[in-house]
Amino acid sequence: MKKLLVLGLVAVSTLIASSKPVHAGTAGRGMVYSADGYANVRSAPNAKILRRCPNGSIVFTETGYYYKGWLRIFSDQCGDGYMHESQLVYPEANVQFISRDGYTNVRSTPNGRIIGQIATGRTAEVYLRKGEWLMIVSDDYSISGWVHQSQVE
After folding, report:
1. 136 neighbors 99 (Cβ within 8 angstroms)
2. Residue 1's pLDDT band (boundaries 50, 70, 90)?
3. How far apart are CA 89 and CA 33, in angstroms?
4. What is the dihedral of CA 149, 108, 75, 47, to 10 degrees?
5. Which fold has domain 21-89?
6. Residues 37-58: b if buried by 16+ CB within 10 A, e if exposed
7. Is residue 105's pLDDT more than 50?
8. 133-144 pLDDT tens trace
9. Within this chain, domains 21-89 and 93-151 share the same CATH topology
């Protein structure tokens, strides 16, 4: 009887584990980018909103978890929870800063106010392109914003 109970529990747990939808491309990191200027972080897929996560925030996604467009996310800026995949963009390229001035200005929007600088020689990931402007995140995640494409290679 004990053996039968153990086998039954193993079968049920295997069935539950295998019924969780998995999407191969969900592991890694993404950046929040939404027309609203933020994305909602929820307690579960399509459930109660816990908080808003502003555009430009970096989130890490749980390896192997994907359910009907929902991802389990972790973030220093936004906390933990669930976010819909439509609210994220992913790195498309790596670049190195080449400005002869020794730094490149990082801006809040394309041609917008300067929010910081990044040193020549440093690298970053490109998440979006708008004309000649690139939305980047620095290699150490210390700054994100827009830079002109002439400042990178």
Report:
1. no
2. low
3. 6
4. -110
5. SH3 type barrels. (2.30.30)
6. ebbbbbeeeeeeebeebebbbb
7. yes
8. 999 999 888 889
9. yes
Would you tell me which CATH number, out of the four given (2.30.30.40, 2.60.40.420, 3.30.70.20, 3.30.1030.10), belongs to the domain 93-151?
A: 2.30.30.40
Quick: pLDDT tens for 40-82: 999 999 999 999 999 989 999 987 778 899 999 999 889 999 9
Q: Which residues contact 20 (CB under 8 A, 6 or more apart)?
A: 65, 67
The angle subtended at Cα 30 by Cα 138 and Cα 40, nearest 5°, is 120
Q: List the domain boundaries for the chain.
A: 21-89, 93-151
Only one residue has tokens 């929820």, namely 42
Among 103, 20, 30, smallest CA distance to 64 is for: 20
